Amino acid sequence: MLRISGLNAGYGGGTVLHDVALTVEAGRIQAIVGRNGAGKTTLVHAIAGLLRPYSGTITVSDVDLAGKPAHRIARTGVGLVPQGRRVFASLTVAEHLRLALAGRHNPMWTVGRVLDLMPRLAQRLGHRGNQLSGGEQQMLALARALLTQPRLLLLDEPCEGLAGEVASRVREVIAGLAAGGMTVLIVEQQLHHAIQLADRIAVLDYGRLIADEPADGVRADPAPIEALLSIAQRR
Amino acid sequence: MDRVDPYLIPALDGVAYGLLLFVVASGLVLSFGVAGILNLAHGTLYAIGAYVAATLSDGSWLALLLALAAGVGAATAGGAALSGMLAAVPRGDHLTQALLTFGVALAGGSLLVMAFGAENLPVRVPATVDRPVDLAGHAYAGYRLVFIVVAAALALALHAVVNRTRAGMLVRAAVDDPDMVACLGVSPARVRLGVLAASGALAGTAGVLGAPIIGPGPSTAATVLLLSLVVVVLGGLGSVGGTLLAALAVGEIQTLGVALAPTAAPFLLFAAMAAVLAARSHGLIRRWSPA
């Protein structure tokens, strides 16, 4: 589904991602874990088209997306739930949903379907983005991304800053999406968050992918991955 | 009443002047707030509308409608052309944008003078609205009263478009976070084209309808641009309410202020701008809102 090879990307001439290669099979949840500044968000932005890579290929369902602008990548079926949610402060929940769905023919995800999945949003339709709680904003960011009809969903630290119960609900929704066949790439700083959801877990350190393991193995024995993250943290 | 009476006409003039500046400046707010483009050729787009009005107007309603169609069309095309010229300039590169659009403004100003001459041109309005109207014993230009009504209707329409239509949603979303708008599959280039064309349309509308108030001449583009920039600075980017409030304030300072304190007139506008910025660096109101 998603294949990345030889990806180099960064900002202002400086390289953040070095020769990253990763494959995510359709319908799977791939987690990327790493310390703060490891390059996780840079990777997500490069896939979503918010950052133009220096070199390398990024294909989704065999369509090369590397270097394409964000709006074209979104139209090929890549949805983004960004770090910090980035909901539109001046738009109501209903307007977010209408705007995200506009122009889609025979959508698989409709406003009704996302509201069934996240009923809390149905009670807040008239509230603006900046009037919502963190959990509601996260649900809205997820609903907005789903209404773009993605085949691949990129989630950048979706539980960051959320209370335990709300974070659990967000994880439930994500697990439900994957169970329904959605391919998910989720970026997390904490291994224990990633381990609850993922089929595979990769570790990014200083822009290099230093491990990519099946999550079952990591769940059975998290020590090797924890050691890698601990080494990365100390460096 | 006697103390208020001498200031009635300047105050009313201030409303007309302010509403005219609102229509022009909202185009500038759109282009900067949404497309991130500092368009120093915006005054030139107003001047195009004003020259078209002066050329086509013959005192009939048909001529006014023709001028409106031609002036708005030309300014809209001008805005769209600017969008094309600015396509290669990064969104945040305001210096390059300013230099490019300033060059367009200089070239455009020279071309307008070549085409229409170096004199200020008179503009004829339809005879039915050209008559003076009696207001508390003062004769007041009927066209200005009509203009106040039309400009107020335009302000309401703009408010409705921003708050009630999909285009308005897109505008507000793009002010908030243009990258996230792109992640919904909306082309930023299309948004920029639409916004600059709409911005040109507002300038052209103001130019045609406001030509009897700020008429076409060699200094029109610069005057309108300067006053619009003051309105934008005072009103804050991305706020319909702030732009309207600031435009009315500038209009009153330019008319009522001059009547009340003629010796301070040259400094009033910029003193007011400095005072507002010192107290509220983001302007009077922060962003597009129903307020």
What would you say this structure looks like, in words?
The complex is a heterodimer of chains A (235) and B (291). Chain A is an alpha/beta fold and 235 residues long. Chain A has a single domain (2-83, 150-234), classed as P-loop containing nucleotide triphosphate hydrolases (Rossmann fold). Chain A has helices at 40-48, 70-75, 93-101, 111-117, 119-122, 134-146, 164-179, 191-195, 215-220, 223-234; strands spanning 2-11, 14-24, 29-33, 55-60, 63-64, 78-81, 152-156, 183-188, 200-205, 208-214. Chain A is globular and about 45 Å long. With 291 residues, chain B is mostly helical. Chain B has one domain (5-279). Chain B contains twelve helices and two strands. Chain B has a two-stranded antiparallel ribbon. Classes of the chains: A alpha/beta (235), B mainly alpha (291). The A-B interface holds A 48-50, 69-71, 74-75, 79-80, 82, 86, 88-91, 95, 98-100, 102-103, 129, 144-145, 148 and B 166, 169-170, 172-173, 175-177, 179-180, 182-188, 287-289.
Keywords:
heterodimer; A: 235 residues; alpha/beta; Rossmann fold; 4-stranded antiparallel beta sheet; B: 291 residues; mainly alpha; two-stranded antiparallel sheet; 12 helices; transmembrane helix (chain B)
Question: Would you kindly provide a brief summary of this structure?
Answer:
Chain A has 235 residues and is α/β, with parallel strands linked by helices.
Sequence-ordered SSE layout with sheet pairings:
The complex is a heterodimer of chains A (235) and B (291).
Chain A: E1 2-11, E2 14-24, E3 29-33, H1 40-48, E4 55-60, E5 63-64, H2 70-75, E6 78-81, H3 93-101, H4 111-117, H5 119-122, H6 134-146, E7 152-156, H7 164-179, E8 183-188, H8 191-195, E9 200-205, E10 208-214, H9 215-220, H10 223-234
Parallel strand pairs in A: 3-8, 3-9, 6-7, 7-8
Antiparallel strand pairs in A: 1-2, 1-4, 4-5, 9-10
Chain B: H1 5-33, H2 42-56, H3 61-85, H4 94-116, H5 127-130, E1 132-135, E2 138-141, H6 142-164, H7 166-176, H8 178-182, H9 188-210, H10 220-235, H11 240-260, H12 265-279
Antiparallel strand pairs in B: 1-2
